[in-house]
Amino acid sequence: MTTKTLNTTASASQIIPVLFAVVLGLGIITVTGHVQASTLHDAAHDVRHATGFPCH
Amino acid sequence: MFARILTGALFAGAAAGLIAALLQLFFVQPVLLHAELYESGALVHFGGETVSAHPELPGIFDEPMRNLLSILFTMLIYTGYALILVALMSVAERQGHEIRTGQGLLWGLAGFVALHFAPGFSLAPEVPGVAAADVGARQIWWAATVASAGVAMWLIAFGGNLVAYVVAALLLMAPHVIGAPEPETFAGPVPTEIGALFAARALGIGMAAWALLGVFCAYFWQTEAAHADANT
Prior knowledge:
The structure holds two protein chains of two kinds.
Chain A (H helix, E strand, L loop, with lengths): L1 H32 L4 H14 L5
Chain B lengths: L1 H38 L24 H31 L9 H19 L12 H24 L3 H17 L13 H40 L1
């Protein structure tokens, strides 16, 4: 019973860093690859084409 | 835990992104610049006169700011990929799968399929100037395809039974059966030779960079683990 409780706590404290890393990664990809604000779009234009993202 | 993911992802993403950026500048950028000559109308395909297939193009050092920004953004994108890849490695490791450096190759190729090849199968990497459907609709289709292909790759790697493989195959095919947003008419001024070369090179360099990214992520994940063990 004690072991089970410990395991549950451990997995909760381990899943949050994983989720945070995934959200951060998705955020970076969205901003660099997909946001259509013109400054961002112009700066990342060549990369978006070369990476195969929908560009414009 | 988060520090270990972050450190590994930053090193792996920056290194793979830098290599990807240099490969793109050397192999993809000349094709892109060539296409832009048709996009801007400086060259006309099937116009009154025949057009040389080898026009004068700006070199890598002729547009330093443009190319530096490309390097920076490529490194950022691959760092984003790396954060997700390392986070998933930590999940797999907790489920009892060992992450060795050599296996990083498979992780990288799976990432390439999920993020580049699966969406590219119906929305091929486009040269500037091609006709395309609304960008918002294509982005939604792109995100949905990447998500379903990502789940499919995980099921193929760790599912371990027939049902998982069948579900993975359906997830891989579904976005293409439904179909990607396509333009109403074709109006691209760029010769098909340039478009095909561009798509092939974009995908080829994506595969090389993703393979390296997977190996780097696995390597740094292991190195960080060794550090963590040494510190405790």
